[in-house]
Task: inverse folding
């Protein structure tokens, strides 16, 4: 790769990183909705999750990425589709903090 190609590559990478959306702050009401849905309905696709929680797909995806980083969910591939479900840590969080509207 020539020097000019490397510079161009770095510029493109920086633009991509600037356009990358991230959550600025976490809404615990949305986290609660997601946890409750996954707790009671089990594993499901991201599109169905966003529809049931009344979130835009992009916002739902950002929250699911955050929940994955926090190790609250597990992702599995089933029939070519990604299925999201709660892991033990996610189930613990829901049962201890959110079940029956417990105080957070």
Result:
């Amino acid at each position: 790769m020539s020097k000019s190609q490397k510079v161009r590559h770095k510029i493109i990478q920086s633009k991509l990183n600037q356009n990358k959306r991230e959550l600025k702050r976490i809404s615990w009401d949305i986290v609660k909705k997601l946890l409750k849905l996954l707790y009671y309905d089990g594993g499901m696709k991201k599109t169905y999750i966003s529809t049931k929680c009344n979130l835009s797909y992009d916002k739902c995806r950002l929250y699911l990425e955050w929940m994955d980083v926090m190790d609250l969910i597990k992702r599995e591939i089933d029939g070519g589709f990604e299925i999201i479900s709660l892991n033990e840590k996610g189930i613990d969080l829901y049962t201890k903090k959110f079940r029956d509207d417990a105080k957070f």
The helical segments are 3-19, 28-41, 46-52, 57-69, 88-98.
